[in-house]
Amino acid sequence: MSHAHVHGYVAEGFDHVREEYTAVVAEQGGQVGSQLAAYAGGRLAVDLWAGPQVSGDTLTGVYSSTKGAATVVVALLAQEGIVDVDRPVAGYWPEFAAAGKDTITVRDVLTHRSGVIGVDGGLTAAELADDAVIARRLAGQRPYWRPGSAYGYGGFVTFAVIAEVVRRATGQPLRQVYDERVRVPYALDLFVGLPQAQEQRFLPVQWWSATPEQEAAFWADVPGPHSITGVGYGLNSTPPLDQVAFVNTRTVRGNGPASAGGVGSARGLAGLYAAALWGGNGRAALLEPDTVAEFAMLHSTGGDLVRGAQGNYALGFQAKGLRYPFLSANAFGHDGSAGSESFADPRSGIAFGYTRRRFGFGWSYPEHDRLAAAVHRAATKA
Q1: Whole-number Cα distances in Å, 214 to 208, 242, 362, 371
Q2: What single DSSP character describes residue 123?
Q3: Please, which pLDDT band fits residue 2 given cuts at 50, 70 and 90?
Q4: CB burial class (10 A; 0-12, 13-18, 19+) of residue 304?
Q5: Hey, CA dihedral for 353, 372, 68, 284, is it positive or negative?
Q6: Cα distance between residue 366 and residue 17, in whole Å
Q7: How far apart are CA 152 and CA 169, in angstroms?
Q8: pLDDT in tens, 234-284
Q9: Which residues contact 364 (CB under 8 A, 6 or more apart)?
Q10: Which residues contact 288 (CB under 8 A, 6 or more apart)?
Q11: I need a surface site. Which of 7, 248, 276, 336 has the fewest CB within 10 A?
Q12: Which secondary-structure segment (H or E) carries 218?
């Protein structure tokens, strides 16, 4: 079927991955636009794409998968003794100590236990485009719960705190550290701040397709804008944050806010985790085994105050071994709200990346389970 035509390459033994991806594309009507990439045993074993205008080189918004790139930076700096994750944030950034935040550690922020998930009155889209502006607003904000007593996801602001810690510890913006230490040397198509010269490769993210009745039923059940969930997702702004318009704005892409402003491809997402664990582009692994073990360790499990049962975090990363039971306990990575997914499983030796241009209705992406399982099966049988 032409509407399900899939392009690209799979290595020997990964034909079932192509078949599963082709089935997913066909079920989506061939109109979503997506990419799938995976490393296995140190090689790029899957490199597929489908949909209007999409190629293997296409870049699109990856939203919170950006947090994975930012966490790799923190892990690298922690490995080198430049950042201590158990030091209070205020030790790097004194202004952050205001309003009862003096004991919050970098680890608390990375594991979403700080209570700092937004600001009273909300942040505008323009403010959320700039981590330095977010940081100034957060400095005086009181936490939304007692730090350390629970955890909850701060989708658009949490990693602005991390970006400020990196800036104070290194004297450089997180974007610059990422470019110099990670993206450029490992030749990754994953940007935290998209250069103007790469802009022609970007395809805008699109909103989901639904009937008026489906939309009305969905939004009738959305939590209030000033609830914990509303604050965590930027719904308490006036007007509420438009997630589609957010990453489709050139200022957001150019600035690359570390919580959700990244732009990349499936190759870039998979390549990030391959570089972290096994190296790439003729270079050794970014992270040592002890660093990987620390950052892959489960930290925050059980009910997430913002996301509910969808939580579960390692250190900076999502705990993918809980998300996908066929993976090992220390699998780690991060997804994004438009449907991107990325992770590594140190035990099975796979690094996975997936992007899609169109939001899934209700932020639902059942294909993640199918595609991740197909890659895992192929890699562990190869």
Answers
A1: 11, 19, 10, 27
A2: -
A3: very low
A4: buried
A5: negative
A6: 15
A7: 26
A8: 889 888 888 899 999 999 999 999 999 999 999 999 999 999 999 999 999
A9: none
A10: 79
A11: 7
A12: helix 212-220
Band the pLDDT of 382: cuts 50, 70, 90: low
Please give the single-letter amino acid code of residue 31: Q
Q: pLDDT digits over 290-315, tens only?
A: 999 999 999 999 999 999 887 899 99
Q: Positive or negative CA dihedral for 325, 326, 327, 330? A: positive
Put simply, whether the predicted model's pTM sits higher than 0.85 gets the answer: yes
Reported as type and span, the H/E element at residue 37 is strand 34-40
Spatial separation of the C-alpha atoms in residues 261 and 192, rounded to whole Å: 7
Q: What does the block give as tokens for 73?
A: 């930076």
- What is the C-alpha separation between 119 and 134, in angstroms, rounded? 9
Whether the CB-CB separation of 59 and 264 falls below 8 Å is answered with: yes
In this predicted structure, the answer to whether residue 218 has a pLDDT above a threshold of 90 is no
pLDDT higher than 80, residue 104:
yes
What digits encode the pLDDT tens for the residues 110-137?
A: 999 999 999 999 999 999 999 999 999 9
CB 192 within 8 A of CB 262: yes
Amino acid letter for position 103? T
User: What pLDDT does 214 receive?
Assistant: 87
Show the CA angle centred on residue 369, arms to residues 366 and 371, nearest 5°.
105
Burial readout 231-241 (b: 16 or more C-beta within 10 A, e: otherwise): bbbbbbbeeeb
Q: In whole angstroms, what is the distance from residue 141 CA to residue 270 CA?
A: 36
